Fold this protein.
Amino acid sequence: MRLFTPIACLFAGLIACPAIPLLAADSPTADQLAFFEKKVRPVLASTCYKCHSHGGEKLKANLFLDSREGMLKGGENGPAIVPGSASRSLLIKAVKWVNDDLQMPPKNKLSDSAIADFVTWVDMGAPWPKEDKVAAAPNYAADYDRIRKELWSWQPIKNTEPPAVKDAKWCKSDIDRFVLAKLDEKGMAPSAPADKLTLLRRATYDLTGLPPTPEEIDAFLRDTSADAFAKVVDRLLASPRYGERWGRHWLDVARYAESSGMTRNLIYKYAWRYRDYVIQAFNEDKPYDRFITEQLAGDLLPSRGSKDKDNLQVATGFLCVGTRDYNERKPRQFNYNVADEQIDTVGRAFLATTIACARCHDHKFDPIPTADYYSMAGIFISSQEYTGIILRRGATFNQYDEDQLVRLADYKPDPAAAKKADVTADPKDIDRAAFRNFFMRMRSSSDFAKPSTPIKPLAMGVREDSRPGNVNILNRGEIDQPGQLVKRGFLSIPAIKDPPTISSGQSGRWDLARWITKSDNPLTARVMANRIWGHLFGHAIVASVDNFGTTGEKPTHPELLDHLAAQFMHDGWSVKSLIRSIMLSSAYQQSAAFDKAKYAIDPDNHNLWRQNQRRLEAEAIRDAMLAASGKINLAPPVASIALDFPETPLGAGGGRFNFGELISNTSHRSVYLPILRNMLPEALDVFDFADNANVTGQRDVTTVAPQALYMLNNTFVIHMAQAMTDRIATARLPTDAARVEMAYKLTLGRPASSTERDRALNYIQVFLRDPKAATSRDPYTNKAAAWSSLCQALFASAEFRYLN
Amino acid sequence: MNPTTSRRQMLLSTSCGFGYLALADLLTRAYAEPNSVPPTQPSSAHTGEEHYRSPLLPKQPHFAPKAKRIIFLYMQGAPSHVDTFDYKPELAKMDGKSYAGRTLLGPQWKFNQHGKSGLWISELFSNVAQHADDLCIVNSMHTDNPAHPQATILLHTGSARFVRPSMGSWVVYGLGTQNQNLPGFITIAPGGQGGAQLYGSGFLPAAYEGTPIAGTSSNGLPNVTPAAPASVQRRQIDLVQQMNRDLLRRSGENPQIEGIIESFELGFRMQSTVPDVMDLTKESKKTHALYGIGETDTDTFGRQCLMARRFAEAGVRFIELSHGNWDQHQQLHQKHESNAKVIDKPIAGLLADLKARGMLKDTLVIWGGEFGRTPTAQSKDGRDHNNRGFSMWLAGGGIKGGLRHGATDELGTKAEVDKMHIHDLHATILSLLGLDHERLTYRYAGRDFRLTDVHGNVEKKIIA
């Protein structure tokens, strides 16, 4: 919403105007009024009222010309008329087109005679007949008190007693009581529990983003103890793969990427440290309130030793991995744009609130006055980010500068590393040259994922500005239009008692973190509990996961959401505990099976009468192919190959074409693929990867033909199918039927039915008999091709990319 | 039946047999269903109650369209308007005079009047000039920023400051596309500062993203080359589809799985359609010659123009071509001349070909850069950036031909009469397609977004 441009923004900020006493022409003569009605009013009506009247199409410049009061009060440039003095009247200057930037009407200048009439009219004192007061313009702020009281998400979290339910036996916990009560209300019953294989596959993907291994499948089937599933959940939560899965969910929210995007698209060489920090934080089950605090103010927190200190500094990378326009020439404008991006991210990530809408005008829908926005802007303007990139200096295109990264504690400058000279050639030429070298380097390397550039103790991060302070409101968001100075602070949410105050000499980031994580902040715990629920059910309780404002969705289960939020805080903000309690509920463990009658009542499953069938995310689809083929390298890679990328702008297009091919040989998990803005790896792009220009709590799910083409013809997919064939072929299985069994287990996590087995065996035979398919003279080669084709078909199947 | 029509219809429905009935059924359904206006948001996993509908199926516009598709010839780097399509006799007279601390540089090429309409066009575009009576030259364009990246992104997305969906994505979101065997939005050999953002879908679903195609080979689309002979791959797809139908049976109603089943049929057909449409050997020698294919200067761009026509004919909704670099701060003479030489004949050929096939009337062709250039000289033989006034032209698709619309001041410094901002251009383009730019909205982050944000006026004077 912040893209509202100046003129339109004004609409929002208008305050009902007090009656202004009429000046000169309080008692105009009949002749004067006749002149106005004949010569002036018709011209006003026909040429000005579209943009400058009540009931006009759109108000511009906050200026009403449909009353004398409106003209006297004026718009953003001041009063339109000075009665009695045409020469001092802005209106006259505007219609005369005196200035380049104020020419009204904008497209067609009035005739000379019409302009002369306006001059005469103003000089005679701007006579206007007495008229009833016109209605006041809309005033959003006037509604704020009411909205603050009514907006559900701004009310305190209420941990209500779970309601009574019909079938108490179904309920394993309070979560189930809330879910079942809603179903009872609608006269629906929950679904039967999912079978063990389905449940294992669901849980394994949900927690690790990987399929269960055949051994894990067998072990779970053998375990008949009552807590067999709880043991699975605990095993998966303890796996390092968990942090890679749930860390990636957070990286979506943190709009993580390793380049700046926009026009220059410069590499963030050390963004990966933040990525690794996030993964580790989830694996350690870092309390969520602490996680927030570290990301906002890690550099300010006390630390235990240099390693801890480094880690805390890296956490603040959260604030600076966003989109930046390094082509902006005005540093001050750039700083405000950065602050805006940070406010937007903080607001939506932690609070699901679109604060940044209030940059240019009071928020149209939510109770956020512009003053609140600038009270937060002061905090970020008082902080300095270090991304490794500086604004353009003169005519050079080399904007990478290691001095613009945060030095970690054990940093020792490398004397051998001579400072690189600035490059002044055409950026595109540099680009091409650098990429050519890069491709050649990559081709000769056997492990694409390992950067050849030395890794230095540097990180992206935020530090305090040397002179923290408050900032002025910027009228219409324009840096050269300062208004009132506002004290640094936070949103005016009445539920939050005794908000921290920001001491002078500090940016206030730590205080912001304290305010966000205060236990009476009604948003923070709800927002995260909702995100977690959404990842485990496919539908969040509040569907608009990043917008809890008046234009967002309302919760389907408000009491349940509050229960989860309260429990989350009670359990020390432990994400793992909340996940565990949700997964151990009957609600989570339901089957996703279709039921015609219930579907007819509730097709979108708002009432949770079943689990949802869900498509896997792009990362899980790629990782599942790597896992099935046995090629997956589960060891986290060192750093990111983004380190090897050129320091010059990735800028203009073209880079995207072969990028997928470039990285298709890496066998690390998808979370470690380099995420460059506008140059996404194909495997991720094709299956709706997160829009990394924005906080993305929930990805799109599209189904389009390029996905089918990817599964049918992409080299990576074919290589994976071939590798899986090798794996099956070398497993020393007695029969082809056993091989089909293994193929099904590896890809779909279940045995093949007899129909499926026969179909697969038949497919192999037909393939081998077809001279167009079995093209080799060598029968083993043909057999491998046939099995590879079968494995690829399994990858391509809808079941492979869906969770039941 | 008119032979061109039958050929078009054939191309529109081309398939290599297997999924044809499914497609026909799909299209029948799409046309039969009363469509919601404004276009509905596409079905996603989270709004599953309806029958699965591909987000790319044709949708009804808001009102009767004059144009069905767009070919956008983007001139990156910004051509000089006073040397091409903005006739400035006063500037010629003032050549060498001082103006605002700089020296005026008269038009470097001779302007002549063309066609019945007598439009003034410089000799740089003597071939395009032969279509003067079909052109509407807008001399009063202006934009916000004189820097290439910002202006290029504004031209393509309506917003220079934020990452927003591109014009082509909005159009396909609004109208879907006619041929389900091809992408709805294709950008041939994209260039210009802004990269993938120029054809990105922003917050719109990824299905509306433009498909970049390398402009020269016949398999410029990723993964379109079949990995196996057609019959072998078909058997593999049949196996996949058997599994998918099994899953669909087990899942009850599931639009997503129906969508996957359809995506394989469409994908399979695209494998033959895309190379087929991109195969220029199917065109006559005469046609090749018309576009300047085979001539040194015009071969590449000529091929791209012909490819654009073939895509248009096959039902692609939005096609963009780029040509550059027109950023002549120096060597204006040499470079503008060589640039024009590369594109003049191919574009004239495209217009002639579209007209001959009866397609110009519903194909909107747009030519122009991100801004214009100053009437004053820079380094003697060059011109600086000028965002305050420049020219674009439009042809076909409901545009009044033979019209010079709006004007800059007598030197070409800035637009003065009937000024047209990029937002106005966007509003007008959407209007020609039957879309109301104020109603073509997408709800994102709690707000309804538009291509034109809160701006834009439809310029009715240029609509026939």
Q: What stands out?
A: The radius of gyration of chain A is 32 Å. Chain A touches chain B through 100 residues (CB under 8 Å).
